[in-house]
Amino acid sequence: MPDIDDEERFLVAELVDGPSLRKYLQNLRAELGHDSPALFPPEMAAALVLQILSALARAHHEGIVHRDVKPENILIAGLKADADSPRTSQRQSDPSRPAPVAKLTDFGIAKILDAQSMTSTGQILGSPAHMAPEQIESGDITPKVDIFATGVLFYELLTGQLPFDGKNPAQVIRRVLEGDFSPAERVAPTVGGRWSAIVASMLARDPERRPGTVDEVEAAIRAELDAMGVKEPDRELLDFVHDPRAIAGKWGERMKPILLQRAIAARERGDIVGSAHDLNRALAYDPTDPKLVRAVTTLRTRERRMRGLRRAIPIAAAALLVSGGTFGVVRWSQSRAHTAPSASVSVAPVPTKSVSAEPSTAPSARVDAGVPSASVAILTTVPPIVTGGPADAGASKRRVRISVFPPGTYSVDGGAPHDSFGDPVQELSMGEHTISITGRSGCCEPFTQKFRVEAGEGEQSQTFKLALKPARINVIGAEGAKVTVVRQSDGVQLATGPAPLSVVLTDTQVPVTITVEASGFPTKSETVTLVPGDARAVRFD
Q: Which pLDDT tens digit goes with each residue over 456-497?
């Protein structure tokens, strides 16, 4: 350790012999190719994220928030940084060295920037796509901004693309602030609903809805890894790095029986949602597996029965209440008939025609033949079962959580508009309602649909998916041009034909390569991100 008075001073740092995670991902994509079912098996992505969380836990314990967690700031120790592919990287490394470890680097922002994370020119320093909303809006820096950034990293490892993307930094920032991203399981079905839910919790726009500490995230990830049979994530991550093609290709066969077994167990417990998550992920690996198809059929049948039972229980309970009340009233009337003068029974009698006006409220089969007509008329005062809509006077209410994808503005029964961000909860009366939804920035077709609020305890969830508008590609300056649009993530051709070309999108932001061929001009290619309702023009000058 040098003396502080020495003329020569130096900083000692660890030498990490390995590439950045960004470089490793690029090499991995080249190694696996576009025909690979997934870039990173979900459990291997989780194993890598665990190592990042371990580093963050230590930093947070020391009162340090990193504020710039991203693949460029993570080094993979144990691999040659100049290797051409992940597989040759491992062969060139020393076999006696320990498993590759993710090293979190570049804590400069945590030490240098002020609370606003801005330079003097107002430029956001760092990557907007990895920054938490509160970090952009108010500079409110807590450990939860690192949880958010790690969620972005986890999402990219699982799906091969960023949750928040756009044509320019301003558009990216807007989407981060709006919480506008597609669930990971929609982008890559083999991710499954359980991993997707963990990532979504990390990416919650409201910091209060994120896990409180990185330890909580780590516990959730380890629990899911353990359930999927990955007991030694570090060792298995090393195996994956050694031969990613072989392991990624067989991952589905390994996961299918585990997912099926857990789905059956969840179904037996009555956990229909959990069972569906596991079956959907297993089917994503092999949609033709007869065991999985039978399991899905059984689950759907059970779900329909449970749905029917849930609808029948309130009606049966109400009917029981009515019949029980009827029995009590009849018994009371009979006792009154035996103990009081007959004149008191006929005082102010209700006309019997009121009974026939609402026959459904007077179950005559339950009425003894000897009961006076006045006591029969009393039965008409029993309130009917509530089956109407929001206008039903005195109808009970239930909390309804409304989810809209992509986020937009909605109103229920023509009421005040609400922003769908954060899945807001409404107090709605039992019965039928009408919801009208408008997407943001012209992304989607206007949407109106009826839905019912069912009787029950707890919150009712209502999810609505808007129809995305197609993007449109036009060509200026070249007649008869042919346009081809290819998705970058997997090389799938989305559309081809003469300009103007309509491109159907399944997500709110899709990185693509647009290739235009026109007679008398050299072929022209552009890499852009298409969004629903987007209008693009390729110019030939």
A: 878 888 888 888 888 889 888 888 889 999 988 778 888 898
User: Annotated catalytic residue: which of 68, 146, 180, 278?
Assistant: 68
Helices H / strands E in the chain, number of each? 17, 16
**Nearest residue to 108 via CA among 161, 61, 72, 66:** 66
Determine the pLDDT at residue 478: 81
Phi, psi of 113 (to 5 degrees): -70, 155
| Structural domains of the chain, ranges and CATH numbers in brackets | 21-250 (1.10.510.10), 328-381 (no CATH), 397-465 (2.60.40.10), 471-539 (2.60.40)
Comparing 124 with 163, the larger pLDDT belongs to: 163
Three-state DSSP at 16 gives coil
Question: Is 68 tagged catalytic?
Answer: yes
427 contact partners, CB below 8 Å, separation of at least 6: 397, 398, 399, 400
144 and 150 Cβ atoms separated by less than 8 Å: no
Model-level pTM? 0.55
179 neighbors 147 (Cβ within 8 angstroms): no
Least confident of 166-170, 329-333, 440-444, 465-469: 329-333
